[in-house]
Each structure stands twice: as structure tokens, then as C-alpha cells.
Design brief:
Oligomer: single chain
Structural class: alpha/beta
Number of domains: 1
CATH superfamily: Alpha/Beta hydrolase fold, catalytic domain
Largest sheet: 10 strands, mixed
Helix content: 25-40%
Number of strands: 12
CATH architecture: 3-Layer(aba) Sandwich
Strand order of the largest sheet: 3-4-6-5-7-8-9-10-11-12
Order of helices and strands: EEHEEEHEHEHEHEHEHEE
Length: 296
Amino acid sequence: METPSALSTTQGSDNVLLVAPNPKTLARELSKRGPHRVLRGDLAVAGQPGVVYTPESGFDLPAVAFAHGWMTGADHYRKTLEHLASWGIVVAAPDSERGPLPSHLGLATDLKATIDICVGVRLGPGQISVHPGRVALAGHGMGAGAAVLAAARRDVSAVAALFPAPTAPKAENYASEITAPALIVAGTDIDTMNSNAKSLAAAWGGEQILRAVDDASDSGLIEGRRLLGALGVGGSERKTQQTTRALLTGFLLYRLLGDKKYEMFAEQDAELPHTTLVDPHEERAGADFEGLRSHI
């Protein structure tokens, strides 16, 4: 594994110079699995249908509850959930509200319950625990909106809305109440009726970062085949998944653990590969985005 940062000492001086991490190297590192062996568990044992992935051991670990998108389930995000766990983060995903007419509030309630399970129950063979002050909420599509609805009713350290889609009630109406920092990730169709990424970012009450992933569709994060694929609705996108996993992992490692190495993933002006920063308060002009401030 490449080392993105190093320490060097100037000759004849005790001053230590910190070499800034290279964004491309760091993003490439985070797009790959981390150093931890991953364990899988069943949330149903604690009364909540779903799955949990954890590092093999560790106490006071960070945790994130992850909500799936419309007409999918937790199994369609298995590699993404395993990826986060391999970097030392406990990840739990409720597997409810999978039908064509889901309750977004119901999924938000299950997310809150899932976080409470992670914090309140000793996981694995008694060698894993979660720190109550190191928890986050995340989701994809409608699950991103459910994460916002849940964050409005529970204190968390961070929120990640990945390719968010409109929900009922509107997540934007609750975003102003949330002071936790947010990472909002969108695709190239950020200005369509199926994406509320810009309005969500514009309404956010705390710090927020809105990034568009190059050549990504809203459904590209979903893994494997699914029912809607047969109807020509999107498909799995390997590059989208790799870039999004790097963004999410770096953001959570900084926000939940305070690891300065990954601070750039929480900065509003950091240039990260295969992404474009979007100003949610700028309007689109013609066929191009206005307010795009960085691009590699």
C-alpha cells in the first residue's frame, strides 16, 4: 500500500515538515479494501431485520447505519458495506421497506433503531463495541432521504447522502434542523426530478459538501442484478462504486475518528479525483453546471 504522507526533517534543524497527502494517492488507497478482516452478522437477532459488518475486533469503534434505495435491499450494497468495515467502521443496514410503496419514515425509524443496537449491544464474540459519540447515518437514493429524516430526530456526528432521491415527507424540510456535517454525493443527472441533492445541500443547517461523481448515474452504486435492471433502469457501475466508497470512507474516518490524514474528504474546497465540487446555491446555465469549482 502506498504511503500518502510522510515526515521529513530539515537539515540542521529540529523543525519537522509535514508533507501534504496526495489526493490521487489517498483516494486510490481508500477505493480499495482496508487492512481489517471483516465479520458479518444478522441484525434480526436483536429484533431488526438487516445485516451488520464489523472489523474482526476493536472497542469504541465508529459506526454507521446505512439505508438502501428503492426496490433494493442491503444485499445489493454488500461490497460497499464490507469495504467500510475493512477500514475499521462498524456498518449496519436495515433490510426493511423493500417494496414498491415503502414508508420513508419507517425506514428512518429503522435506521435509528439500528444505530441504537450498534451502540447498546456488544457485537461479535464480545470483542467489538461502538463508541456512542462516533456514529453516523448514511443511505443511497430514498435511503439517503431516510438518513436525513433520521438525523433530524437523533444526534449523530455525520450524515452521508449518496445520490439522494425525493422522499415523503421532503428531507429538505428537515435538513435545516441538522447541524451535523454532511457529505452529499450526486451523479451527472444532479438537476433532474429524481435527484434532490442540490436542494438538500442548500437547506443543510451545518457544514455540507456536495460532490458530483464523474459519469455516474443515480443507480450506479447498486451492486449486482436487480428487478429494475430488466426494465432498463440503470445498472451497476464499478467506477462509481470505487469513487463513492473512497469519498464515504475518507469522510467518515475524519468525521468519526478525527483522523487528520483524511481531512481533505471533509473540506469544501479540496480537489479529489473523478469528482466535481458543486455550489448548491448556483443555478445551472444551459447544458453545463455553474459553480463547479474543481475538477480532476
